[in-house]
Amino acid sequence: MKVERDRENDIPIFQVEFETQYGDYDFEIALADGRIVGADYEVDEEWLDALGGSPVTQERAREIAASKVPGSSAGDVQLWEENEDGRVRLEGELFHDGIKYEFEMDADTGIIFDWNADLRE
Q1: Number of domains comprising the chain
Q2: Segment 39-98, tens digit of pLDDT
Q3: CA 26, CA 41: separation in Å to the nearest integer?
């Protein structure tokens, strides 16, 4: 785990980074109020394959993504399907409360394996 003081969009933050057996995580946390103003995580595909799960519809995928952002709704989520490397995934965006969220979800399990959140001004 690594924690450093930094600045993001002129906001003093803690930059927090850590690794787990299933992925890497980075968070930017505002010193003033503890609000997360940036986040990035990526799950290893080997770990994702071991989980299994059930395929999700695009409607359910929107609900899953919106549930990660308090105050947002499935209608706020833009979603499209990608299949570049033989793995079907759903990619999407959500803009809420000044933060832009981008994600990739495994269509076979509904698991978000890549998530980014960035404060926008």
Answers
A1: 1
A2: 998 888 777 778 777 899 999 999 999 999 999 999 999 999 998 777 789 999 999 999
A3: 6
Q: Are 19 and 35 in contact (CB under 8 A)?
A: no
CB 118 within 8 A of CB 38: yes
Look up the domain containing 54 and give its range.
2-119
Span between the terminal Cα atoms of the chain, in Å: 29
- Stated pTM of the model: 0.81
Lookup result for tokens 């993504």? 65
Question: Which two tokens mark 114?
Answer: 């890549």
DSSP string for residues in the chain: -EEEEEEETTEEEEEEEEEETTEEEEEEEETTT--EEEEEEEE-HHHHHHH------HHHHHHHHHHTSTT--GGGEEEEEE-SSS--EEEEEEEETTEEEEEEEETTT--EEEEEEEE--
